[in-house]
Amino acid sequence: MKKIADIFIMLTCLLLLSGCMYPESERAENQIPYEEQLITVQNAVNQYRGASGNLLPIKTRDMDVDQFIKYPIDFSKLVPAHMAEVPPNAFETGGIFQYVLMDVEENPTVKLVDLRIAEAIRSINIRKSANAGQVPISEILADNVYKFNHEAMGMKEEPTVVSPYSGRNLPFVITGSGDIYVDYSMDLYTAIQEYDGELKEGEDIRFLLYEKNPVVPAYSLPYTIDKNKEPVFNNK
After folding, report:
1. DSSP helix/strand/coil, 163
2. How many domains does the chain have?
3. Is residue 122 part of a domain?
4. Mean per-residue pLDDT for 191-205?
5. pLDDT tens digits, residue range 211-227?
6. 60, 66, 91, 109 from 56: Cα distances, Å
7. ω before 33 within 30° of 0 (cis)?
8. Which residue, 39, 72, 107, sits at the end of a domain?
9. E strands, 60-144, in order
10. Which residues pair with residue 99 across a beta bridge?
């Protein structure tokens, strides 16, 4: 009996240790955009606006930054006055999402940025730096948008990131200025097929991805439709 008890204690300790050693950012609760957490943060934002004369609980960013990451929520202005704690899936607590506000002028709405995409881009930029800042081009995709030659950069496989919308593996593109972006063409093609409204050439169609989804398509170039109603880059 003592041997069985010893084995049980050993297994319990191993389980506890594995839980403590599991990377914070990889825990399941830190990777899911729970609707309840979004509602809690939205309510807190609304309360803050009401108590502060319609000010927004956001951090200061340069105005020329990507529209989807321009207004990150400052949880220090919300906790503990308007909510008990920062959500476990937020970047501030080891999660993979940054909470941001969209439509700040008309209807400030809480959305999420998937920071795994930012991390993937950072990894590519590190490889680019190791290559003296040079990125060999393998294909011209649109005006000032290119597919880069990952093999010439020393990568065995083309870098991809999991889409927060479809679960597909999405590739990356590069512009003439050397900036890396995720390519949402596949997701947008599907979204166009499912959209009942009218789309116009020249219109930024990325709203199709986040209109009914909590995650915004950050770190991407603008897209529109061509005459065949298919997504194309609109990097002008």
Report:
1. coil
2. 2
3. no
4. 95
5. 999 999 999 999 999 99
6. 11, 18, 19, 11
7. no
8. 107
9. 97-102, 109-114, 137-142
10. 112
